[in-house]
Automatic annotation (TrEMBL):
Protein name per its UniProtKB record: Endoribonuclease L-PSP
Family affiliation: Belongs to the RutC family.
Superkingdom field: Bacteria
InterPro entries: RidA_CS, RutC-like_sf, YjgF/YER057c/UK114, YoaB-like
Pfam families: Ribonuc_L-PSP
Length: 74
């Protein structure tokens, strides 16, 4: 999923270092620790955006996580 975020950021003229905020929706908060580990490894050190994480019903049953980001254009 984060590869897709990288692609969309590049298409919009941005990148991970310019994410201003992220809202992460998880199907169940029992996935939080795993999601957090993946997120922390993906976000460049020193560039962590404001972030919220909430449990939510997914758009498709098979999804475990959905992410919405706001980024600055570079």
């Amino acid at each position: 999923m984060l590869d897709k975020v990288d692609t969309l950021l590049a298409q919009a003229g941005s990148d991970r270092k310019h994410i201003l905020s992220a809202t992460i929706y998880v199907k169940d908060m029992s996935y939080f620790a795993d999601m957090n580990a993946v997120w922390d490894a993906w976000v460049p050190e020193g560039h962590a955006p404001a972030r919220a994480c909430v449990a939510a019903k997914m758009a498709r049953e098979a999804l475990l996580v959905e992410i919405s980001v706001v980024a600055a254009e570079i």
